[in-house]
Amino acid sequence: METYGLWINGAERGGARRSVISIPYDGSAFAEVSLAGPAELEEAVNAAVAAAPVMRSLSREDRSAILRRAHAALLEVREDFARTIASESGKPLREARIEVDRGASTLLFAAEEAHRLAGEVVPMDAARGGEGRWAMTLREPVGVIAAITPFNFPLNLSLHKIAPAIAAGNAVVHKPASATPVSALKLARLLTACGLPAGALNTVPGPGGVAGDFLVTHPAVRMITFTGSAEVGLALRARAGMKRVTLELGNNSSLIVASDARLDEAAARAVPGAFAHSGQVCISVQRIFVERPAYREFLDRFLEGASALAVGHPLEESTAVSSLIQESEARRVCEWIEEAKSMGARL
Q1: Which residues does 330 contact at the CB level (< 8 Å), separation at least 6?
Q2: Is 211 within 8 Å of 19 (Cβ atoms)?
Q3: In terms of domains, do 24 and 159 share one?
Q4: Which of 51, 123, 257, 303 is 20 to 30 A distant from 72 in Cα terms?
Q5: What is the pLDDT along the chain (347 residues), one digit of tens a residue?
Q6: Residue by residue, what is the 3-state secondary structure of 233-297?
Q7: Structural domain total, the chain
Q8: Taking CA 254 as the corner, what is the angle to CA 328 and CA 346, rounded to the nearest 5 degrees?
């Protein structure tokens, strides 16, 4: 079992306590991770505050080069990251590999955008007295950004926040989901090895009630970016005061199948759309409306596809569906199934 400390100011260090991360499928221990308390969180914010002027001073090409190196480095260790994602989240290995590839693309996109961070020139003659005058706008780094990320895409959704922040010259304090911190800690080490200045990315796993609340209310944090449930996102926004807040929250995605649709294609796309990562994806297919003439044929095709999905350990190559992230979530799903049956649904 590997052990991971917090990542603060470009180095590993211990935390207030430690937590064992288990493979959700069978509960076997995967890694032991340090957890941040108030003292370590304060240290991480201070490191980001000190690094913010350094990041601001880097040229666009410097930032882009760091991200390009990280893109290449991540692809070199693709399998290691995929197995880490599969182990800590329970995501099937075949899907974890796709996540790593998407994460690498996110780094490349951010590297390209670093070169395009430009303001604009605005003519002022829309109002009288503005003839012959122009205004210029400039894009400036925000400073210290707190990034709070979920369990279901522990690498790529972290990169969705971290990579653009680096491209724009900011420093980041990252609180990954408590269930899946290892991918984030490995990412911090990879970015540092690719030349990211010390303190520009600080990764501090810890309970949301401790780490999340600390970062949202800290006066040195200028922006909060959060992906997760609507309930938590609204609470964070309410506490953030004058900070900038970016929220990516839950969803209830529906699929409409018309009677003239290619039903074989519709079912073939609906099955992975519904069951990828055991349905733990914010854009999972959650409701399907089928026009009545096509209902029976679509249902038969959908059931055939779903029945063919192999359920198993996330690290097995054949596995298409593994476990939910926690046993409590499995109980909740079972309760919803029973509730639906009690209201007339057929299993």
Answers
A1: 323, 324
A2: no
A3: yes
A4: 51
A5: 899 999 999 999 998 888 999 999 999 999 999 999 999 999 999 999 999 999 999 999 999 999 999 999 999 999 999 999 999 999 999 999 999 999 999 999 999 999 999 989 999 998 888 998 999 999 999 999 999 999 999 999 999 999 999 999 999 999 999 999 999 999 999 999 999 999 999 999 998 888 888 999 999 999 999 999 899 999 999 999 999 999 999 888 899 999 999 999 999 999 999 999 999 998 899 999 999 999 999 999 999 999 999 999 999 999 999 999 999 999 999 999 999 999 999 98
A6: HHHHHHHCCCCEEEEECCCCEEEEECCCCCHHHHHHHHHHHHHHHHHCCCCCEEEEEECHHHHHH
A7: 2
A8: 65
| Rounded-to-integer distance, Cα 32 and Cα 164, Å | 29
Residue 31: phi and psi, rounded to 5, are: -155, 160
Question: Residue 149: CA atoms inside 13 Å, Cβ hemisphere, count?
Answer: 28
Whether residue 284 is contained in a domain is answered as yes
List the CATH number of the domain containing 267: 3.40.309.10
Active-site residue set: 248, 282
User: Are 329 and 243 found together in one domain?
Assistant: no
- Residues constituting the chain: 347
Q: Which domain holds residue 108?
A: 2-114+140-248
Pairing mode of beta strands 201-203, 134-137: unpaired
Residues 155 and 293 grouped into a single domain: no
Instruction: Record the tokens describing residue 149, joined without a space.
Output: 């990320």
Q: Are residues 81 and 28 in the same domain?
A: yes
- Verify that 312 and 168 share a domain, yes or no: no
Residue 123 belongs to a domain: no
